[in-house]
């Protein structure tokens, strides 16, 4: 309120000064003008200071708003990240509740290639009960691969589509039994498929046995003339290169 009153006084002085300038140039008027200027000079300085302070406060408020906006964005990012982590955890917990075998969660440390094979390195090994030959899946129940080497605290996982990897499987929905062999490039060859089997592209391949893991999706179907078997290829459904966590399956 005090600042507003000071500003009003300054404005009144300016108006009065303008009127004097407009109506007279006499010595008396000049004296009055000079007196007014001398009297109100401190108030004018105060007004300038007030205006300067207002500008500074405005800048500060803008900076505060920017900082608050950045803080809110960071909070939203953290909330979204937590939401995704919770969804992943729910999937994993749901998975654990619906399968009989015991699962061991492991964090992926590295995705790499070694001697032409695609592999993952995880942060659990023999000290956690991990053994060579154990199957590995993701939170979506898709086959990732198999443990081929286990150290005390880390293990290496061979991706299921690597050459020399093989699994017994069923083709869904036909329930046709097959043997799937990795041929590299995230691709399987399906063996011993009868020439009269009514397969279609898009059919799924699921591991046989107690653990119903989805392994692949049929992408091509061919047949050599005179052959008793079809030539069938399927692509690996999991994407090992994107995984941050896997689940290693051991016997109950």
TrEMBL record:
GO terms for cellular component: plasma membrane. GO terms for biological process: regulation of cell shape. InterPro entries: Cell/Rod_1, Cell/Rod_MreC_2, MreC, MreC_beta-barrel_core. It comes from Candidatus Sungiibacteriota bacterium. This is Cell shape-determining protein MreC. It holds the Pfam family MreC. Keywords: Cell shape. Belongs to the MreC family. Residues 117-249 form the Rod shape-determining protein MreC beta-barrel core domain. Gene3D superfamilies: Rod shape-determining protein MreC, domain 1 (2.40.10.340), Rod shape-determining protein MreC, domain 2 (2.40.10.350).
